[in-house]
Structure formats: structure tokens, C-alpha cells
Design goal:
Oligomer: single chain
Pfam families: Wzy_C
Strand order of the largest sheet: 1-2
Radius of gyration: 22 Å
GO molecular function, one term: ligase activity
Helix content: 55-70%
Domain O-antigen ligase-related: 132-276
Transmembrane segments: 51-69, 94-112, 124-141, 176-201, 264-282, 294-312, 318-336
Subcellular location: Membrane
Length: 371
């Protein structure tokens, strides 16, 4: 709420206040959709069904458009003539994001159903998940989005680790490792000047400048904008400033910073970046608490939180897109830790071991309602 409120306030000092206000209300509509989904009596099942049906529609549709309607699902680079695939999205990067979130969801859904794999219904769902994972991987392969590929691997590793026996016994092993890895990255990158992103790019056979992204970042940081307040919500890439950038940067007709943190800084300054950081830290603490209570969505949300940071290093991950909205869905819907009454039930009625086993099979909305 604080971030959205400051974003609305920033409309005042935007060069294009009307456009900024329209964009704010547009994004507010996306957040309202999240609230509608969460207003269901069983929000966990509602979000799970929402994501599943979304991917059931977009993944096969993307394949159909690419294979049989190339005038819609395919384009060619005007300079190199290389084919670029977009499917049912607006571009190859958006197709990569769709595949990233879809692959992560179906992998998580398969892992969470693994203990029931001998049941007929669970087995059918898992086979369907495998089929969609295969389709997703094919789309991700042709999308040529290395950022999404790397993030998918990282996200799947986080989910697998979260469901391992060692982490289930001691969740702090995983919840402490991720912040330590991020701090290590910052120390190496900021303190020692080691360009880890360039090293990763070289490992996957890419340009160490991240396709001129480092040049874009340097040029944008050299531009004069308000350090504290930025240029206003979604206002940096507008009007004379955008035309001046296109004419003087020599980096093509781009309209984003290709870095989520830099994008927020340009639009909302240090204040907006600080509010975003506060939200990410608060949400991580909440996710860690939910992971300790074996929440169904805990591992998926933790993976989304992790890859959101990775993805935002080279793309504008905090814009109101599929990854950001899916993360918000998971972060908000994760139910609370079983409270006092649930613990009383745990210890008295069934015994320590038996009650824990029973409560692990009860829908978490039920245990949350015991408050």
C-alpha cells in the first residue's frame, strides 16, 4: 500500500501527469483482479485453478500461433532477419516469462502431488503436468530467452530444496541460504567490482555486455533525474526525454531500462526503491514463516521471490506483468501459521506425531480458520 500510495503521489511531479495517472489506474486494475481471486472462500484452490487454466490456455495457443499462424505468433528481426517467436504474448521476452512461470507452476504442482502419486486422479494430473512441462520447455527453447531459462532452473532448485527432507526438518537451512547468496552477490559486485552477470552470460554463450544492457545502464545513470523522487510513475520513457534518449544514446528505440531496480529508481527515485525493498524484505519474512508451517504455496512463493530478483537484474521485473502479479498472488494467499487452538489440538487430541501427520493433510484454510 505504501508503494502504491507513493506511486500515486508521484503523478504530481510527472512531466505527463495524465498519462501517469492512467497507467496507475491501469495497474490498480491488475491488483484488483488479485483481490477478486483471493476473495474466494478457498483462496488456495482458487489461485491454483486460476494459474492452471491460464497456462492451459496460453501454452497450447502459443504453439498453435507459432506453428500455424506465423503472421501472429512469429516475427523477424529487421536487422538480422532472425526469427523471433512471441506466441500468444507481445514479444519473445514475454513468451520467456510465460514459459518461466508456467514451468515453475507445473513443476511445483507435480512435486506437491508426489506423495499421492499412486492415486489415480493424482497420477493423471501429474501426467498432464509433465506434458505441459514438455510444451513449456519447447517454447522456452525457441524463445531464446536465457534469463528465463536460468531463472527456471534456479526456481526449480528452490522448490526441490524446499521439499527435501533436510529442509523440512530445518527450514532455516534454505531461508537463510537465499539472503546469504544475495549478500554475497552484492559484496562481489559492489565491493570488489566483479561482474557476475557478465560471467554468467559468458557461461551460457552470450555477450558479456548482456546485449548492450551494461551500456544502457551506464547511459541512464548519467542522465539527470530527481535522485529522491524520480520522474513520476511510469513517466521516464515518455515525451521529449524518450526522443532525446533515442537520438543521443545510440542504443536503438528501447523503452525500458532492462533492469527492474533501475526502472523503479528512474520513475520513483530512492524513496520508491526503498519502499520496494521494504516490501520485498517484509514479504520474504512472511514467506519464511509460512514455509516453516508447511504451507502449500510456501515453496512456490519462495521460488517466485528468488527468481523475481534474478530476473530483475536484466529485465524490468517489477512492472505489472505476469511474474510480478503471480508473485503477489502467492505472497498474499499463503495462509498463516497454525495458531494456539491448532497447537492444542495437535498436542492433546491425537498425540504429537499423529496430529502433525493429520494436520499436514488438512487443507490449510481449515487450520487457519481455527484462530
Amino acid at each position: 500500500m505504501a508503494f502504491l500510495s507513493f506511486a500515486l503521489l508521484s503523478v504530481i511531479w510527472s512531466d505527463s501527469s495524465l498519462v501517469a495517472l492512467k497507467r496507475w489506474f491501469r495497474d490498480l486494475g491488475n491488483y484488483m483482479v488479485i483481490l477478486v481471486a483471493l476473495s474466494d472462500r478457498r483462496p488456495l484452490e482458487a489461485v491454483r485453478a486460476l494459474l492452471r487454466r491460464l497456462f492451459f490456455l496460453l501454452i497450447p495457443l502459443s504453439i498453435v500461433l507459432i506453428k500455424y499462424y506465423p503472421e501472429i505468433g512469429k516475427s523477424w528481426d529487421p536487422w538480422t532477419g532472425i526469427a523471433q517467436y512471441s506466441g500468444a504474448t507481445t514479444g519473445k521476452n514475454m513468451l520467456g516469462v510465460l514459459c518461466l512461470v508456467s514451468g515453475l507452476f507445473f513443476f511445483w504442482d507435480t512435486v506437491t502431488r508426489w506423495t499421492d502419486r499412486k492415486e489415480r486422479r493424482a497420477k493423471r494430473i501429474m501426467l498432464l503436468n509433465v506434458a505441459f512441462i514438455a510444451m513449456t520447455l519447447w517454447l522456452l527453447y525457441i524463445s531464446d530467452s536465457d534469463t528465463s531459462r536460468i531463472c527456471l532452473v534456479v526456481g526449480c532448485l528452490v522448490i526441490a530444496a524446499a521439499h527435501s527432507k533436510a529442509v523440512k526438518r530445518r527450514p532455516a537451512l534454505l531461508t537463510a541460504l537465499i539472503p546469504l547468496a544475495i549478500c554475497g552477490y552484492l559484496v562481489l559486485a559492489v565491493g570488489f567490482g566483479i561482474n557476475i552477470s557478465a560471467m554468467v552470460a559468458e557461461l551460457v554463450g552470450r555477450d558479456p555486455t548482456l546485449t548492450d544492457r551494461t551500456k544502457i545502464w551506464s547511459f541512464l545513470l548519467s542522465m539527470k533525474t530527481s535522485t529522491l523522487f524520480g520522474t513520476g510513475y511510469e513517466s521516464f520513457w515518455l515525451g521529449p526525454r524518450l526522443e532525446w534518449f533515442w537520438q543521443n544514446a545510440g542504443l536503438g528505440h528501447i523503452n525500458e531500462a532492462h533492469n527492474g531496480f533501475l526502472e523503479v529508481y528512474l520513475n520513483l527515485g530512492i524513496i520508491g526503491l526503498s519502499l520496494l525493498g521494504w516490501f520485498l524484505i517484509a514479504s520474504y519474512r512472511t514467506i519464511c514463516t509460512r514455509l516453516e508451517s508447511f504451507s502449500a504455496f510456501g515453496s512456490l512463493t519462495l521460488a517466485l521471490w528468488t527468481i523475481l530478483l534474478f530476473y530483475s537484474v536484466t529485465e524490468a521485473g517489477f512492472r505489472s506483468g505476469l511474474m510480478w502479479l503471480t508473485f503477489l498472488l502467492g505472497a498474499i494467499v499463503v495462509p498463516a501459521r497454525p495458531s494456539g487452538k491448532a497447537r492444542i489440538l495437535d498436542n492433546s487430541a491425537f498425540g504429537s506425531a499423529g496430529a502433525k501427520e493429520m494436520l499436514s493433510r488438512v487443507p490449510l484454510e481449515v487450520t487457519a480458520s481455527l484462530r
